[in-house]
C-alpha cells in the first residue's frame, strides 16, 4: 500500500525540474515624476524674464539720460541768471556814467567850456 500511495503522490504532484535562473533584480517601476513646468511654459517664462530684464535696462538708461539732461538744464539756467545779473549791473553802471552832471564836470576838468548852451542827454531811440 505504501507503494500505491507513493505512485498516487507522484501522479498527483508531478515534480518538474527547476531551472535555476540567474535572478536579476527587476527594476521597480517608480512613479513618473511630473515636472513642475512643461517645456512650453519654461520657454514662455524665460522669454518673459528676459523681456522684463530688457525693459528694466531701458528704463534705467532712459532715467539716466533724463537726469543728465536735467543737470545740463540747471547749469544753463545758472549761467543765464549770472549773465542777467551782469547785464543789470552793467546797465546800472551805464546809467550812472551817462549822468549829465558827471559829463559836465569831466568836461570842465579837461578845459572845455559851455557857452550859453543847454545840455541834453541823447537817448537811443529804437
Automatic annotation (TrEMBL):
Biased composition (Low complexity): 10-32
InterPro entries recorded: Cell_div_FtsL, FtsL/DivIC
UniProt KW keywords: Cell cycle, Cell division, Cell membrane, Coiled coil, Membrane, Transmembrane, Transmembrane helix
Cellular-component GO terms for this entry: cell division site; plasma membrane
Coiled coil residues, start to end: 66-93
Compartment(s) of residence: Cell membrane
Region described as Disordered: spans on this chain: 1-34
Regions that span the bilayer: 43-62
GO terms classed as biological process: FtsZ-dependent cytokinesis
UniProt keyword annotation of Aminoacyl-tRNA synthetase present: no
Topological type in the membrane: Single-pass type II membrane protein
Function, as annotated: Essential cell division protein.
Family: Belongs to the FtsL family.
Protein name: Cell division protein FtsL
Amino acid at each position: 500500500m505504501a507503494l500505491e500511495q507513493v505512485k498516487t503522490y507522484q501522479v498527483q504532484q508531478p515534480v518538474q525540474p527547476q531551472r535555476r535562473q540567474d535572478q536579476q533584480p527587476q527594476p521597480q517601476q517608480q512613479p513618473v515624476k511630473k515636472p513642475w513646468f512643461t517645456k512650453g511654459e519654461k520657454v514662455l517664462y524665460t522669454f518673459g524674464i528676459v523681456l522684463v530684464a530688457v525693459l528694466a535696462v531701458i528704463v534705467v538708461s532712459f532715467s539716466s539720460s533724463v537726469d543728465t539732461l536735467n543737470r545740463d538744464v540747471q547749469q544753463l539756467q545758472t549761467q543765464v541768471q549770472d549773465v542777467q545779473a551782469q547785464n543789470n549791473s552793467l546797465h546800472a553802471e551805464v546809467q550812472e556814467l551817462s549822468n549829465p552832471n558827471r559829463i559836465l564836470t569831466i568836461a570842465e576838468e579837461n578845459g572845455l567850456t559851455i557857452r550859453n548852451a543847454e545840455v541834453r542827454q541823447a537817448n537811443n531811440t529804437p
